[in-house]
Amino acid sequence: MQTFSILFVLALLLSLLIQLWLSNRQSKAISQNRASVPNAFAEHITLEQHHKAADYTLAKLSVNKIELIYGAILLLLWTLGGGLNLIDTFFRAYAYNEILTGLAVIFGIMFISAIIELPFTLFRTFKIEQRYGFNRMTISQFIKDMALQTMLTLVLAVPLISGILWLMQDASPFWWIYVWAVLLSFGLLISWIFPTFIAPLFNKFMPLEDEVLRERITKLMDRCGFSSNGIFVMDGSKRSSHGNAYFTGLGKNKRIVFFDTLLETLEPNEVEAVLAHELGHFKHHHVRKGLILNAIITLFGLALLAWLIKQDAFYHALGVSNASTYMALILFSMVTPLFSIYLQPVMSFISRKHEFEADDFAAVQSKPQTLIKALVKLYRDNANTLTPDSLYSAFHDSHPPAPVRVAHLSAKIEQ
């Protein structure tokens, strides 16, 4: 076995063991604290609701552990087991040019992967989410969504991947810089068109009708210097009872979106506090900072790919006989997560830092106790665990743990 093959297997095992270890820590922490509601939440969340959150989280963790092991086995079968090589050989027999062969191989693998992952998606949606009262999606809606997502993926991904493969094959030795520019441009384009062209394909967006709430929100946006092309309510209840709020889009194409389930739960002043938090991300330029950070990481990743693409050992060590631009792209996308996983705690730390900053902003624009009330309702209604393991949270969670976040905001009340 080649050196890179050994490195790949070790990286796979280490990644799997770390994730399973963290999941076991999370399960243990939740199980040990299931018996009583944490003091900070005792007045607003009943023991029954706390039990539901614990059991819901444990159920998701159990499926996730199985999926981690299953995914590791599949990755071995795709690579060292010869799965990628088999598909590549099949399509090479048709003697298409490099780009058409690459598209056929890439989308063939994507299709097979989607079929393999389908049982997990169905189980999460129609067993776990259904069992705990969150799923509102029908089978027909699920099939419709899947068909629409497939068509949208083809419409957007075929020209993008074709362009990337062409640049990798025919451009200068610095093709990776051109690909980087294309990916950045494509990402900005999707962010710009998402609110008005993509999102409406899946959900209905109606202008907010509550005049009192709309006036409060408008005044808040004026104070924050935030302009948008509308305040909308999304029919999130069509698929789930989970609630959320967000702003999306770029430039003048930004819009504020509330899930209808959120508006059913929160009072107008609580909705205002939640939106103030979201606007805090805008005021602190978190979206811009995230785009810059992702651009830097993508550039380094493409530079690494530009080196690997010339190494025959990279292909042979991962079970692929014929070197090609498209196979380098596939192998890189499959193997990179095994090594980039160690960046995850750093990315989570940055994200949680941004969440604290947005909370601080909301505490000034609204009241910290109002945001606390809104968050506690969301924790309750979404069955978020109140007792996560600290290491698991530090590794995985983009938001601060519920007790830490509430304590942070509570300190603002005393100031």
General description of the model:
By secondary structure, the protein is mainly alpha-helical. The protein is 72% helix and 4% strand. The chain has helices at 3-32, 47-78, 83-92, 98-131, 139-170, 175-198, 211-224, 260-265, 268-283, 286-308, 312-316, 325-340, 344-365, 368-381, 390-396, 402-414; strands spanning 205-207, 231-234, 245-248, 255-259. α4 packs parallel to α12 (325-340) and α13 packs across α14. The radius of gyration is 23 Å and the shape is globular.
Looking at this protein, list some descriptive labels:
415 residues, mainly alpha, 4-stranded mixed β-sheet, 16 helices, globular
Blueprint (SSEs and pairs):
Elements: H1 3-32, H2 47-78, H3 83-92, H4 98-131, H5 139-170, H6 175-198, E1 205-207, H7 211-224, E2 231-234, E3 245-248, E4 255-259, H8 260-265, H9 268-283, H10 286-308, H11 312-316, H12 325-340, H13 344-365, H14 368-381, H15 390-396, H16 402-414
Parallel strand pairs: 2-4
Antiparallel strand pairs: 1-2, 3-4
Helix pairs in contact: 1-2, 1-15, 2-4, 3-4, 4-5, 4-12, 5-6, 6-10, 7-9, 9-13, 9-14, 13-14, 13-16, 14-16
